[in-house]
Amino acid sequence: xHILVRHLPMGLLLTGLAHFSKLLLGFLVVKLIAxxxxxxxxxxxxxxxxxxxxxxxxxxxxxxxxxVRFVSEYKNDRLKLGRxxxxxxxxSAFISFILSFFLAFFSNQISTFIFGKPEYxxxxxxxxxSQFLIAFINFVIAAVxxxxxxxxxxxxxxxALFSGGPIAWYFISNFDIGGAGYAILIVSSIxxxxxxxxxxxxxxxxxxxxxKPRGAEVKVLYYYSVIAIVxxxxxxxxxxxxxxxxxxxxxxxxxxxxxxxxxxxxxYIGFFSIFLAFWFLPRISGMSxxxxxxxVTFRSMSFIGLAFLLGGGIxxxxxxxxxxxxxxxxxxxxxxxxxxxxxxxFFRVLSYVIGFIIISKASVFVYMISQVFQAxxxxxxxxxxxxxxxxxxxxxxxxYSVSYFVYFLLMVLGFVLYIKMQRSKN
Length: 426
Prior knowledge:
By secondary structure, the protein is mainly α. The chain has helices at 2-5, 8-44, 46-58, 64-74, 78-105, 107-115, 121-146, 150-174, 176-189, 192-203, 215-250, 252-284, 290-317, 319-326, 338-360, 364-387, 393-425. It is globular.
Protein backbone atom coordinates (compact mmCIF):
# COMPACT_ATOMS: atom_id res chain seq x y z
CA UNK A 1 0.00 0.00 0.00
CA HIS A 2 3.01 2.33 -0.21
CA ILE A 3 1.43 4.03 -3.25
CA LEU A 4 -1.46 5.21 -1.14
CA VAL A 5 -0.10 5.76 2.32
CA ARG A 6 2.82 8.11 1.71
CA HIS A 7 2.14 11.07 4.04
CA LEU A 8 -1.15 9.31 4.75
CA PRO A 9 -1.41 9.30 8.58
CA MET A 10 -1.45 13.08 9.14
CA GLY A 11 -3.31 13.76 5.89
CA LEU A 12 -6.00 11.22 6.72
CA LEU A 13 -6.23 12.51 10.29
CA LEU A 14 -6.80 16.09 9.15
CA THR A 15 -9.13 15.10 6.30
CA GLY A 16 -11.04 12.86 8.70
CA LEU A 17 -11.29 15.67 11.25
CA ALA A 18 -12.60 18.02 8.56
CA HIS A 19 -15.25 15.62 7.34
CA PHE A 20 -16.18 14.60 10.89
CA SER A 21 -16.80 18.26 11.71
CA LYS A 22 -18.96 18.65 8.61
CA LEU A 23 -20.78 15.42 9.42
CA LEU A 24 -21.36 16.45 13.02
CA LEU A 25 -22.80 19.80 11.98
CA GLY A 26 -25.14 18.14 9.48
CA PHE A 27 -26.31 15.66 12.09
CA LEU A 28 -26.78 18.38 14.66
CA VAL A 29 -29.23 20.08 12.29
CA VAL A 30 -31.13 16.83 11.64
CA LYS A 31 -31.09 16.04 15.37
CA LEU A 32 -32.55 19.45 16.22
CA ILE A 33 -35.22 19.17 13.52
CA ALA A 34 -36.07 15.65 14.72
CA UNK A 35 -36.29 16.88 18.34
CA UNK A 36 -38.43 19.95 17.66
CA UNK A 37 -40.44 18.75 14.62
CA UNK A 38 -40.37 14.94 14.87
CA UNK A 39 -40.23 12.44 11.96
CA UNK A 40 -42.96 14.36 10.11
CA UNK A 41 -40.86 17.53 10.17
CA UNK A 42 -37.83 15.63 8.91
CA UNK A 43 -40.00 14.14 6.16
CA UNK A 44 -41.48 17.53 5.20
CA UNK A 45 -38.04 19.14 4.95
CA UNK A 46 -36.50 16.13 3.24
CA UNK A 47 -36.94 17.48 -0.30
CA UNK A 48 -35.45 20.83 0.73
CA UNK A 49 -32.44 19.15 2.34
CA UNK A 50 -31.94 17.15 -0.85
CA UNK A 51 -32.21 20.34 -2.95
CA UNK A 52 -29.61 22.10 -0.80
CA UNK A 53 -27.30 19.08 -1.04
CA UNK A 54 -27.61 18.94 -4.83
CA UNK A 55 -27.11 22.68 -5.33
CA UNK A 56 -24.18 22.70 -2.90
CA UNK A 57 -22.43 20.23 -5.19
CA UNK A 58 -23.41 22.16 -8.33
CA UNK A 59 -22.60 25.62 -6.93
CA UNK A 60 -19.94 27.15 -9.13
CA UNK A 61 -20.40 24.55 -11.83
CA UNK A 62 -19.54 21.44 -9.81
CA UNK A 63 -15.86 21.53 -10.77
CA UNK A 64 -14.48 20.56 -7.35
CA UNK A 65 -12.91 17.28 -8.53
CA UNK A 66 -11.46 18.99 -11.59
CA UNK A 67 -9.99 21.73 -9.41
CA VAL A 68 -8.39 19.20 -7.07
CA ARG A 69 -6.92 17.36 -10.04
CA PHE A 70 -5.43 20.34 -11.89
CA VAL A 71 -4.23 22.23 -8.83
CA SER A 72 -2.43 19.03 -7.80
CA GLU A 73 -0.87 18.73 -11.28
CA TYR A 74 0.11 22.42 -11.56
CA LYS A 75 1.20 23.10 -7.98
CA ASN A 76 4.88 23.34 -8.98
CA ASP A 77 4.21 25.65 -11.94
CA ARG A 78 3.12 29.08 -10.68
CA LEU A 79 1.94 30.39 -14.06
CA LYS A 80 -0.16 27.33 -14.93
CA LEU A 81 -1.54 27.18 -11.39
CA GLY A 82 -2.42 30.88 -11.36
CA ARG A 83 -4.11 30.75 -14.74
CA UNK A 84 -6.10 27.63 -13.88
CA UNK A 85 -7.31 29.00 -10.54
CA UNK A 86 -8.33 32.32 -12.12
CA UNK A 87 -10.13 30.66 -15.01
CA UNK A 88 -11.81 28.17 -12.67
CA UNK A 89 -13.12 30.95 -10.43
CA UNK A 90 -14.34 32.99 -13.41
CA UNK A 91 -16.20 29.92 -14.64
CA SER A 92 -17.61 29.25 -11.15
CA ALA A 93 -18.81 32.82 -10.67
CA PHE A 94 -20.57 32.81 -14.04
CA ILE A 95 -22.38 29.51 -13.34
CA SER A 96 -23.32 30.75 -9.85
CA PHE A 97 -24.92 33.86 -11.34
CA ILE A 98 -27.02 31.75 -13.73
CA LEU A 99 -28.15 29.38 -10.96
CA SER A 100 -28.94 32.25 -8.58
CA PHE A 101 -30.98 34.10 -11.20
CA PHE A 102 -32.96 30.95 -12.04
CA LEU A 103 -33.71 30.17 -8.38
CA ALA A 104 -34.74 33.73 -7.56
CA PHE A 105 -36.89 34.22 -10.67
CA PHE A 106 -38.78 30.94 -10.21
CA SER A 107 -38.82 30.92 -6.39
CA ASN A 108 -42.62 30.47 -6.12
CA GLN A 109 -42.70 27.59 -8.59
CA ILE A 110 -39.68 25.88 -7.03
CA SER A 111 -41.21 26.24 -3.56
CA THR A 112 -44.38 24.56 -4.83
CA PHE A 113 -42.32 21.76 -6.37
CA ILE A 114 -40.30 21.15 -3.19
CA PHE A 115 -42.82 21.87 -0.43
CA GLY A 116 -46.12 21.49 -2.25
CA LYS A 117 -46.96 25.15 -1.61
CA PRO A 118 -45.51 28.52 -2.72
CA GLU A 119 -45.36 30.13 0.73
CA TYR A 120 -41.74 29.04 1.34
CA UNK A 121 -40.45 31.12 -1.58
CA UNK A 122 -38.18 33.01 0.82
CA UNK A 123 -36.19 29.82 1.50
CA UNK A 124 -35.64 29.41 -2.25
CA UNK A 125 -34.49 33.03 -2.43
CA UNK A 126 -32.05 32.30 0.40
CA UNK A 127 -30.82 29.29 -1.54
CA UNK A 128 -30.25 31.54 -4.57
CA UNK A 129 -28.13 33.97 -2.53
CA SER A 130 -26.15 31.13 -0.98
CA GLN A 131 -24.96 29.89 -4.40
CA PHE A 132 -22.12 32.43 -4.58
CA LEU A 133 -21.04 31.68 -1.02
CA ILE A 134 -21.06 27.91 -1.48
CA ALA A 135 -19.26 28.20 -4.84
CA PHE A 136 -16.46 30.14 -3.15
CA ILE A 137 -16.27 27.57 -0.33
CA ASN A 138 -16.05 24.73 -2.86
CA PHE A 139 -13.35 26.56 -4.80
CA VAL A 140 -11.16 27.21 -1.76
CA ILE A 141 -11.57 23.70 -0.33
CA ALA A 142 -10.74 22.10 -3.68
CA ALA A 143 -7.66 24.33 -4.12
CA VAL A 144 -6.21 23.63 -0.65
CA UNK A 145 -6.79 19.92 -1.06
CA UNK A 146 -5.12 19.98 -4.46
CA UNK A 147 -2.15 21.61 -2.71
CA UNK A 148 -2.38 18.94 0.05
CA UNK A 149 -2.92 21.67 2.64
CA UNK A 150 -5.18 19.42 4.72
CA UNK A 151 -4.83 21.63 7.80
CA UNK A 152 -6.66 24.43 5.94
CA UNK A 153 -9.52 22.10 5.06
CA UNK A 154 -9.77 20.99 8.68
CA UNK A 155 -9.72 24.60 9.91
CA UNK A 156 -12.58 25.58 7.59
CA UNK A 157 -14.84 22.74 8.66
CA UNK A 158 -14.08 22.96 12.40
CA UNK A 159 -14.79 26.70 12.34
CA ALA A 160 -18.09 26.00 10.54
CA LEU A 161 -19.05 23.45 13.20
CA PHE A 162 -18.52 25.72 16.19
CA SER A 163 -20.06 28.79 14.58
CA GLY A 164 -22.91 27.12 12.69
CA GLY A 165 -24.14 24.86 15.49
CA PRO A 166 -25.40 27.57 17.87
CA ILE A 167 -26.97 29.54 15.01
CA ALA A 168 -28.79 26.43 13.77
CA TRP A 169 -30.12 25.72 17.28
CA TYR A 170 -31.43 29.28 17.61
CA PHE A 171 -33.36 29.22 14.34
CA ILE A 172 -34.75 25.68 14.68
CA SER A 173 -35.86 26.10 18.28
CA ASN A 174 -37.52 29.49 17.78
CA PHE A 175 -38.92 29.69 14.25
CA ASP A 176 -40.64 26.39 13.42
CA ILE A 177 -40.32 24.98 9.84
CA GLY A 178 -39.18 28.26 8.33
CA GLY A 179 -36.46 28.58 10.94
CA ALA A 180 -35.33 25.02 10.25
CA GLY A 181 -35.09 25.89 6.56
CA TYR A 182 -32.96 28.94 7.36
CA ALA A 183 -30.75 26.78 9.60
CA ILE A 184 -30.13 24.36 6.73
CA LEU A 185 -29.09 27.27 4.49
CA ILE A 186 -26.87 28.90 7.10
CA VAL A 187 -25.08 25.64 7.87
CA SER A 188 -24.43 25.10 4.15
CA SER A 189 -22.73 28.49 3.74
CA ILE A 190 -21.26 29.43 7.14
CA UNK A 191 -17.86 28.07 6.04
CA UNK A 192 -17.47 31.11 3.76
CA UNK A 193 -15.95 33.05 6.69
CA UNK A 194 -12.93 30.77 7.28
CA UNK A 195 -12.70 30.22 3.49
CA UNK A 196 -12.13 33.95 2.97
CA UNK A 197 -9.36 33.87 5.58
CA UNK A 198 -7.69 30.82 3.99
CA UNK A 199 -7.93 32.37 0.52
CA UNK A 200 -6.35 35.65 1.60
CA UNK A 201 -3.60 33.95 3.57
CA UNK A 202 -2.65 31.03 1.32
CA UNK A 203 -4.18 31.32 -2.16
CA UNK A 204 -4.36 34.97 -3.17
CA UNK A 205 -0.74 34.99 -4.39
CA UNK A 206 -1.61 32.25 -6.91
CA UNK A 207 -4.73 34.06 -8.13
CA UNK A 208 -4.57 36.39 -11.15
CA UNK A 209 -8.13 37.73 -10.87
CA UNK A 210 -10.92 37.07 -13.35
CA UNK A 211 -9.62 35.72 -16.67
CA LYS A 212 -11.57 34.89 -19.80
CA PRO A 213 -11.36 31.11 -20.31
CA ARG A 214 -10.08 29.72 -23.57
CA GLY A 215 -12.17 27.26 -25.52
CA ALA A 216 -10.11 24.24 -24.45
CA GLU A 217 -10.28 25.31 -20.78
CA VAL A 218 -14.06 25.72 -20.92
CA LYS A 219 -14.34 22.28 -22.51
CA VAL A 220 -12.39 20.61 -19.70
CA LEU A 221 -14.33 22.41 -16.96
CA TYR A 222 -17.58 21.68 -18.76
CA TYR A 223 -16.77 17.95 -18.67
CA TYR A 224 -16.45 18.10 -14.90
CA SER A 225 -19.67 20.12 -14.66
CA VAL A 226 -21.56 17.46 -16.59
CA ILE A 227 -20.11 14.73 -14.38
CA ALA A 228 -21.11 16.71 -11.26
CA ILE A 229 -24.62 17.28 -12.60
CA VAL A 230 -25.11 13.61 -13.33
CA UNK A 231 -23.64 12.64 -9.96
CA UNK A 232 -25.59 15.25 -7.98
CA UNK A 233 -28.92 14.89 -9.73
CA UNK A 234 -29.27 11.17 -10.51
CA UNK A 235 -29.70 9.82 -6.99
CA UNK A 236 -31.38 12.90 -5.42
CA UNK A 237 -33.98 12.95 -8.22
CA UNK A 238 -34.67 9.27 -7.59
CA UNK A 239 -34.66 10.05 -3.87
CA UNK A 240 -37.32 12.72 -4.46
CA UNK A 241 -39.48 10.33 -6.51
CA UNK A 242 -39.08 7.48 -4.03
CA UNK A 243 -39.85 9.76 -1.09
CA UNK A 244 -43.10 10.82 -2.72
CA UNK A 245 -43.99 7.18 -3.38
CA UNK A 246 -43.41 6.41 0.31
CA UNK A 247 -45.49 9.43 1.37
CA UNK A 248 -48.37 8.38 -0.88
CA UNK A 249 -48.25 4.73 0.19
CA UNK A 250 -47.11 4.84 3.82
CA UNK A 251 -47.25 8.49 4.98
CA UNK A 252 -44.85 11.17 6.19
CA UNK A 253 -43.67 9.09 9.16
CA UNK A 254 -42.16 6.37 6.96
CA UNK A 255 -40.76 9.04 4.64
CA UNK A 256 -39.10 10.65 7.67
CA UNK A 257 -37.58 7.31 8.69
CA UNK A 258 -36.15 6.80 5.22
CA UNK A 259 -34.88 10.39 5.09
CA UNK A 260 -33.11 9.79 8.40
CA UNK A 261 -31.46 6.55 7.28
CA UNK A 262 -30.14 8.05 4.01
CA UNK A 263 -28.87 11.07 5.96
CA UNK A 264 -27.04 8.69 8.29
CA UNK A 265 -25.79 6.71 5.29
CA UNK A 266 -24.61 9.79 3.40
CA UNK A 267 -22.59 11.00 6.34
CA TYR A 268 -20.33 7.98 6.79
CA ILE A 269 -20.14 7.37 3.03
CA GLY A 270 -18.79 10.92 2.85
CA PHE A 271 -15.61 9.79 4.62
CA PHE A 272 -14.87 7.44 1.74
CA SER A 273 -15.78 9.85 -1.03
CA ILE A 274 -13.56 12.51 0.59
CA PHE A 275 -10.66 10.05 0.73
CA LEU A 276 -11.14 9.11 -2.91
CA ALA A 277 -11.53 12.71 -4.08
CA PHE A 278 -8.54 14.14 -2.19
CA TRP A 279 -6.13 11.17 -2.14
CA PHE A 280 -7.03 8.60 -4.78
CA LEU A 281 -8.04 10.99 -7.60
CA PRO A 282 -4.80 13.06 -7.67
CA ARG A 283 -2.72 9.86 -7.74
CA ILE A 284 -4.45 8.21 -10.68
CA SER A 285 -5.05 11.34 -12.79
CA GLY A 286 -1.76 11.08 -14.68
CA MET A 287 -1.42 7.30 -14.51
CA SER A 288 -1.07 5.78 -18.01
CA UNK A 289 0.24 2.31 -17.08
CA UNK A 290 -2.95 0.20 -17.15
CA UNK A 291 -1.44 -2.66 -15.19
CA UNK A 292 -0.41 -0.28 -12.43
CA UNK A 293 -3.86 1.31 -12.51
CA UNK A 294 -5.45 -2.11 -12.08
CA UNK A 295 -3.22 -2.91 -9.09
CA VAL A 296 -3.81 0.45 -7.42
CA THR A 297 -7.57 0.19 -7.98
CA PHE A 298 -7.97 -3.22 -6.37
CA ARG A 299 -5.61 -2.31 -3.52
CA SER A 300 -7.70 0.78 -2.91
CA MET A 301 -10.88 -1.24 -3.08
CA SER A 302 -9.49 -3.70 -0.52
CA PHE A 303 -8.40 -0.88 1.79
CA ILE A 304 -11.77 0.87 1.57
CA GLY A 305 -13.71 -2.38 1.91
CA LEU A 306 -11.87 -3.34 5.10
CA ALA A 307 -12.26 0.16 6.54
CA PHE A 308 -15.99 0.09 5.80
CA LEU A 309 -16.43 -3.34 7.37
CA LEU A 310 -14.73 -2.09 10.54
CA GLY A 311 -16.70 1.15 10.75
CA GLY A 312 -19.95 -0.40 9.55
CA GLY A 313 -19.59 -3.21 12.08
CA ILE A 314 -19.26 -0.71 14.92
CA UNK A 315 -22.24 1.26 13.65
CA UNK A 316 -24.38 -1.88 13.33
CA UNK A 317 -23.43 -3.29 16.73
CA UNK A 318 -24.20 -0.03 18.53
CA UNK A 319 -26.97 1.14 16.19
CA UNK A 320 -29.62 1.88 18.87
CA UNK A 321 -27.12 4.09 20.68
CA UNK A 322 -26.11 6.00 17.55
CA UNK A 323 -29.70 6.43 16.36
CA UNK A 324 -30.86 7.79 19.72
CA UNK A 325 -27.88 10.13 20.06
CA UNK A 326 -27.86 11.40 16.47
CA UNK A 327 -31.65 11.50 15.97
CA UNK A 328 -34.11 10.66 18.74
CA UNK A 329 -35.85 7.63 20.27
CA UNK A 330 -38.70 8.13 17.77
CA UNK A 331 -36.30 6.78 15.11
CA UNK A 332 -35.29 3.57 16.94
CA UNK A 333 -37.27 1.54 14.39
CA UNK A 334 -34.34 2.20 12.05
CA UNK A 335 -32.40 -0.47 14.00
CA UNK A 336 -34.36 -3.09 12.05
CA UNK A 337 -33.30 -1.58 8.72
CA UNK A 338 -29.58 -0.97 9.21
CA UNK A 339 -28.30 -4.35 8.05
CA UNK A 340 -29.73 -3.94 4.54
CA UNK A 341 -28.67 -0.29 4.38
CA UNK A 342 -25.09 -1.16 5.33
CA UNK A 343 -24.91 -3.91 2.70
CA UNK A 344 -26.03 -1.46 0.03
CA UNK A 345 -23.59 1.18 1.27
CA PHE A 346 -20.73 -1.32 1.22
CA PHE A 347 -21.18 -2.02 -2.49
CA ARG A 348 -21.82 1.67 -3.14
CA VAL A 349 -18.45 2.81 -1.75
CA LEU A 350 -16.63 0.03 -3.62
CA SER A 351 -18.30 1.25 -6.82
CA TYR A 352 -17.00 4.75 -6.05
CA VAL A 353 -13.42 3.54 -6.61
CA ILE A 354 -14.15 2.71 -10.23
CA GLY A 355 -16.32 5.81 -10.56
CA PHE A 356 -13.37 8.03 -9.64
CA ILE A 357 -11.26 6.39 -12.33
CA ILE A 358 -13.93 7.42 -14.85
CA ILE A 359 -13.89 10.94 -13.39
CA SER A 360 -10.07 11.12 -13.61
CA LYS A 361 -10.32 10.43 -17.34
CA ALA A 362 -13.22 12.93 -17.71
CA SER A 363 -15.18 10.17 -19.48
CA VAL A 364 -18.48 12.00 -19.38
CA PHE A 365 -20.53 9.61 -21.48
CA VAL A 366 -19.42 6.48 -19.61
CA TYR A 367 -19.99 8.10 -16.22
CA MET A 368 -23.40 9.39 -17.27
CA ILE A 369 -24.50 5.95 -18.48
CA SER A 370 -23.33 4.28 -15.25
CA GLN A 371 -25.13 6.77 -12.99
CA VAL A 372 -28.35 6.78 -14.99
CA PHE A 373 -28.34 2.97 -15.04
CA GLN A 374 -27.97 2.81 -11.25
CA ALA A 375 -30.74 5.38 -10.72
CA UNK A 376 -33.13 3.61 -13.11
CA UNK A 377 -32.32 0.24 -11.54
CA UNK A 378 -33.12 1.43 -8.02
CA UNK A 379 -36.24 3.33 -9.08
CA UNK A 380 -37.42 0.37 -11.16
CA UNK A 381 -37.26 -1.99 -8.18
CA UNK A 382 -39.18 0.50 -6.01
CA UNK A 383 -41.82 1.09 -8.68
CA UNK A 384 -42.25 -2.65 -9.03
CA UNK A 385 -42.92 -2.82 -5.29
CA UNK A 386 -45.35 0.10 -5.52
CA UNK A 387 -47.31 -1.78 -8.15
CA UNK A 388 -47.51 -4.74 -5.80
CA UNK A 389 -48.54 -2.50 -2.89
CA UNK A 390 -45.39 -3.24 -0.86
CA UNK A 391 -43.72 0.18 -0.56
CA UNK A 392 -42.49 1.11 2.91
CA UNK A 393 -39.23 2.47 4.26
CA UNK A 394 -38.02 -1.09 4.86
CA UNK A 395 -38.85 -2.23 1.32
CA UNK A 396 -37.07 0.79 -0.20
CA UNK A 397 -33.92 0.07 1.84
CA UNK A 398 -33.90 -3.56 0.68
CA UNK A 399 -34.32 -2.34 -2.91
CA TYR A 400 -31.36 0.00 -2.43
CA SER A 401 -29.19 -2.89 -1.20
CA VAL A 402 -30.05 -5.15 -4.14
CA SER A 403 -29.61 -2.44 -6.79
CA TYR A 404 -26.15 -1.42 -5.56
CA PHE A 405 -24.99 -5.03 -5.41
CA VAL A 406 -25.95 -5.48 -9.08
CA TYR A 407 -24.41 -2.09 -9.97
CA PHE A 408 -21.10 -2.98 -8.30
CA LEU A 409 -20.80 -6.27 -10.19
CA LEU A 410 -21.41 -4.50 -13.50
CA MET A 411 -18.88 -1.74 -12.65
CA VAL A 412 -16.17 -4.32 -11.88
CA LEU A 413 -16.97 -6.23 -15.07
CA GLY A 414 -16.82 -3.02 -17.12
CA PHE A 415 -13.53 -1.96 -15.54
CA VAL A 416 -11.84 -5.32 -16.19
CA LEU A 417 -13.02 -5.24 -19.81
CA TYR A 418 -11.69 -1.67 -20.17
CA ILE A 419 -8.23 -2.70 -18.92
CA LYS A 420 -8.15 -5.68 -21.28
CA MET A 421 -9.17 -3.51 -24.25
CA GLN A 422 -6.49 -0.93 -23.45
CA ARG A 423 -3.83 -3.63 -23.18
CA SER A 424 -4.83 -5.15 -26.50
CA LYS A 425 -4.43 -1.73 -28.17
CA ASN A 426 -0.89 -1.51 -26.87
